[in-house]
Amino acid sequence: MSALADEHMRRILQSTSISDRPVTDIIKEQDLSHSTAYKKIGELVKWGLLVQFKSEIIEGKRVAYYKSIFRSIKINYIGPLEATVEAEPNEDALERI
Fold first, then answer.
1. Is the pTM above the cut of 0.70?
2. Residue 61 and residue 71: Cα distance in Å, rounded?
3. Whole-angstrom Cα Rg for the chain
4. Model confidence pLDDT, tens digit, residues 44-92
């Protein structure tokens, strides 16, 4: 839940929920610094919410593409101490775990 509370992490997950994206596209789309993007992506990967979906060699450099393991996440707050979470998985991303 703490990843969803972090605005940058939430935006990275949204950006990668439909299709895999390279870090450079995420940085431009979300207007993030390189250091923030790589730190947040690293944490999301460590927590299992984001996977490296594929990598390519472009102009001699390895480019990693990331994808969220969830297509959508919905949180319903029932009270101050209770919530329900519904999540639709990205099946192709789950196969990469």
1. yes
2. 29
3. 14
4. 999 999 999 999 999 999 999 999 999 998 888 888 888 898 989 998 8
